[in-house]
Amino acid sequence: MEEENNLLDAKKQNILENSKKSILANKISVKKNDKFYALLFLGPSLLLLILFIFYPMLKTIYLSLFLTNGNGQNTVFVGLENYVSLLTSSTYLASLGSTFVYVIGVSVLTIFLGLLLASTASKNVRGSVFFRTIFSSTMGVSISVSAIFWLFIFNPSIGILNQVAAFFHLPILNWSTDPNLAMISVIISTVWMNLGFAFLVLFSAFESLPLSLYEETAIEGVGPVYRFMHVTIPLISPTLFFVSIITLIESFKSFGLIDLMTAGGPNNATNMLVYQIYQNAFLNGNYSQASAESVILTIIIAILTFIQFKYLEKKVSY
Amino acid sequence: MKNQKRVIYNLIIVLTVAFLSLLPVSLLGNKQASAADNSKRIKIVFWHEMTGPAQTQLNEFVKQFNKSQSKYQVVSQFEGTYEEAVQKILNTHESNTSPAVFQSADISVSQLYHSGYITKVQKFIDKDKSFNVNDISSVARAFYSQKGELLGMPFNTSQPVLYYNASLLKKYNITPPPMNPSYSDITRVAKQLYQRSNKKVKGMTMEVYGWLFDQLIANSGNYSVNNQNGRLATPTKASFINSGSLKAMEWIQENVKSGDFINYGSGTNASANEMAAFLSGKLGIFMESSADIGQLTLGMKNQKLGVTYYPHADGQKANGVAIGGAALWISNDKSSEVQQGAWNFIKYLESAKNQATWQKATGYLALNKNSKKTKTLKNLYKKNPALKVPSEQLAKTVPNNSNSGIFVEGIVQERIILNTALDQIYNGSNIKSSLTQAEEAMNSYIKNNNRANGWRY
Fold first, then answer.
1. Looking at the domain assignment, is residue A105 inside a domain?
2. Which domains does chain B have, with CATH numbers?
3. How far is CA B58 from the centre of its chain?
4. Does B339 score more than 90 pLDDT?
């Protein structure tokens, strides 16, 4: 009997183990199928990413290690020399500095003014619908059109700004030719361009705020500034975070307005990193230098975005 | 199941409709090709960078050339700016999209010469007895030549000149500058204008534009880069600091200090501002390409435009200035038959009659010496004598290595570097230190470029 029992036990165990194995095998086959489907569905986008993002990225790094000859061919391998000469060139460092001034100026002003406009427009007063339309209307203006009319405003001889200044006997300023003023004028027009988008996104965040919270704070007798800083800002912080990242990256990449308004001048005051890349690649045919500049710009944006995610996101309450 | 069937039916209907609608288009396409009967003609692809009235006139020339003979069919294609076009030309060489003949600007001469992608037009000139190259302006030819051989054929050509508002000068009772003015002549007029208008009218400006700076050097007989502007050997160093540039910049700073000089900065924005101020009577004098003359005469309806030669330093004769504009080049990646067609087209454009028409339509200077005998130009000069000035300046100049342009690669870079220096100088910086910085930047560019090309550095 015992032997029989033993045999039965052995059989049972065998069956158990077999079934375990088959389950395992099934699992593996499911996994294999999953991978196949994942590859099938992600494949096309992966292919496109490799073709249009990763390959050009690697090629850019490769190109940045050479010198370009007159025919646009990369002839002499120079290692990191392009980077060294860039990071020691005073014009490049100056352009790095002016880019930071520009980016910070544009981002801070856009967010500040966007918040101001959005909070004003969200008040339900007569005519607020009209102002909402006006505030977001810059989204519909093309860069070239806005560049042209800002140029007319800033024109040193016939510009409105200087005509008004002359009327009130204020000093006449050379907006687009004085290096410092040129930067300010470019910042003003960029902020104006970006404001529509920032306003619209922030405004929608304001609209979705729960009214009950505001009623409670009203009952508690909280002042408007305190309420704005401690109730409104935390509530819209995810949107604010989104707008700040987008504005920052966009202002790093801004090109059209600068090309049309100052073309990098005067005295390189508005020669941002992106504009230098364009000049080197498409006007000079110096592809290697432009590649090195692109790599540096990519690194800078990556670092800044990383910092934003690491530190700013902690303050965001979802 | 039913739904699936319906989807399939709909799909079939959509595809059928799409197919049927495309059918007539493809049939029509075939018809057009056979109707034009261009298949027997040899196709000559021509790339150009002309816009506005110049583009219209150029296309008219292409049409007339195609009508004038039956062997070749020139197809003109617009390729954007000069800087963009030259990159495209170099990048498409030996592909089936590359042009047979193309327009390329003054800034690319050295680059195209060294590219090995062109057939020198000298080769066709030597063979073609029907074409007398001496009819074409010698200053313009010198610009596009190296070692006595003409590389590309000068086509749309301008020269820097000085413009003044003659009506404004008359209003304030100021004697206009002479035809060949010195720096002090211009300073006098600019200062008088500024003072007598109670500082309401600015006396003068010079756009922050390296080309104008290089031309001041050329007019003084000096060189912008060593080895005589690269004409004797590959340049290895910039020479922005010389007696000519120093005198010129001192002249500018003198006017900046006395307040009669206004700085409009650099770029298209600057030239637009400058033009707007000049046309509205708020600026008396400016220096720019003669190509602006058409726009200026149009804009100054009730005012009189004055034009003089490019200014020169006091106590010294003007050496003459280099031309600006572009030339026509023949690619060497096409069959000899196509290249011959390209040459015939170039020859056609250079005729006395066509060059006169070209000047009338665009303001670019007629390069053929016989053009001034044509009725077109005679009438033009009678109507507006100011238009004659740039052509006379061009005709009077004797070419030498100083006024035949700079034979160096990277002139775009040179202009950017010089603009920085000019900006600094206009804003009161020390002339020598600004130009030294510019020289250093250009030297390192030249060095790297020579290295990349495998030349001596």
1. yes
2. 42-158+324-387 (3.40.190.10), 160-322+396-453 (3.40.190.10)
3. 15
4. yes
A46 and A115 housed in the same domain: no
Tell me if B454 and A282 make a contact (CB, 8 A cut-off): no
- Per-residue pLDDT band at B89 (split at 50, 70, 90): very high
Contact B277 A286 (CB under 8 A): no
Residue with tokens 């109707």: B35
User: B61-70: long-range contacts (C-beta < 8 A, 24 or more apart)?
Assistant: B61/B348, B61/B349, B61/B354, B61/B358, B65/B345, B65/B348, B65/B349, B68/B348, B69/B344, B70/B41
In what helix (H) or strand (E) does residue B119 lie, and over which residues does it extend? strand B118-119
A139 and A40 together in one domain: no
Q: Is B227 left (phi over 0), alpha (psi -120 to 50) or beta?
A: left
Task: Check CB contact of B423 with chain A, cutoff 8 Å.
Answer: yes
Three-state secondary structure readout of A4-51: HHHHHHHHHHHHHHHHHHHHHHHHHHHHHHHHHHHHHHHHHHHHHHHH
- Note down the domain range covering A164: 81-315
Residue of B nearest to A263 (CA): B267
Give the pLDDT mean for B51-70: 95
Residue A73 lies in a domain: no
**Do β-strands B42-48 and B101-105 pair in parallel, antiparallel, or remain unpaired?**
parallel
> What is the tens place of the pLDDT at every residue in A158-182?
788 888 888 888 777 777 767 788 8
Instruction: Say yes or no: B84 contacts chain A, CB-CB below 8 A.
Output: yes
- Smallest CA–CA distance, residue A315 to chain B, in Å, is 44
Distance (Å, whole) CA A71 – CA A78: 18
Residue A217's pLDDT is 82
Query: Do A272 and A172 belong together in one domain?
Result: yes
For B6, half-sphere exposure in the C-beta direction (CA atoms, 13 angstrom radius) is 3
pLDDT classification of A128: cutoffs 50, 70, 90: confident
Give the C-alpha separation, A161 to A154, whole Å.
6
Instruction: Sort strands B283-289 and B202-206 into parallel, antiparallel or unpaired.
Output: parallel
* A120 touches B238 (CB < 8 A): no
Count the domains in chain A.
2
Chain A touched by B266 (CB under 8 Å): yes
pLDDT tens string B238-287:
999 999 999 999 999 999 999 999 998 877 778 888 998 999 999 999 99
- The model carries a pTM of 0.79
* A66 is a domain residue: no
Same domain? A45 vs A114: no
The Cα of A57 is separated from the nearest Cα of chain B by a number of Å equal to: 20
**CA dihedral sign of residues B195, B198, B199, B201:** negative
Residues A39 and A89 in one domain: no
| Rg of chain A (C-alpha set) | 30
- B98 vs A contacts (CB less than 8 Å): none
pLDDT 10s digits, A224-272: 888 888 888 888 888 888 898 889 888 888 888 888 888 777 777 888 8
Residue A64: inside a domain: no
Nearest beta carbon to residue A177 from set B115, B264, B452? B264
CB contact under 8 A, A155 and B282: no
Q: State whether residue B144 is helix, strand or coil.
A: coil
In angstroms, rounded to a whole number, what is the distance separating the alpha carbons of residues B27 and B25?
Answer: 5
Are A127 and A205 within one domain? yes
